[in-house]
Amino acid sequence: MQLSEWATELARDRLAEPLPRRWAHVQGVAERARQAAGLFGDDGDLLVAAAVLHDVGYSPDLATTRFHPLDGARYLRSIEAPERLVNLVAHHSCAVLEAELRGLPAELAEFEDEKTPLRDALWWADMTTTPDGKQTTITDRVAEIQKRYGPEDTVSCFIRWAWPELLGAVERTEQRLADQVK
């Protein structure tokens, strides 16, 4: 069984019933990741696995710190998932900045941020997928997040602070995809 197949089963078990909208989102993110997987050779499957598991920390039985990148990564580490997968989940979509706002930077530092094109592609997939799993632009996705959480919420503050990093990852990935077509 491929890593992405295992990841999909795990995410379905943790998210589909308790959080159907979150499950729709991760399926959409995984579909976006599949569109970019060809950029990464053998690591394309890792990208899809990270995409389908990036929000597993929202699962009610895993949400211990209430910071889903950390909760998801700790859970995956506890079941001995591959280290790169664990680290990608921990650091998806510029989580390091949200960890700062939540007072959890030391906890997130347990996990390495690989800062690679593959990581960029995971961020791209997440930031270009709506909560319902549909494709969108990063601008519309960020606006939706801010509207959903409200202007003063930690998530809205984080997303404004992370904008340059998130936009950079999206633009780099879109350029890589365009270059692949040439």
TrEMBL record:
<protein>
    <submittedName>
        <fullName>Nucleotidyltransferase with HDIG domain</fullName>
    </submittedName>
</protein>
<feature type="domain" description="HD">
    <location>
        <begin position="22"/>
        <end position="106"/>
    </location>
</feature>
<dbReference type="InterPro" id="IPR006674">
    <property type="entry name" value="HD_domain"/>
</dbReference>
<dbReference type="InterPro" id="IPR003607">
    <property type="entry name" value="HD/PDEase_dom"/>
</dbReference>
<dbReference type="Pfam" id="PF01966">
    <property type="entry name" value="HD"/>
</dbReference>
<dbReference type="InterPro" id="IPR006675">
    <property type="entry name" value="HDIG_dom"/>
</dbReference>
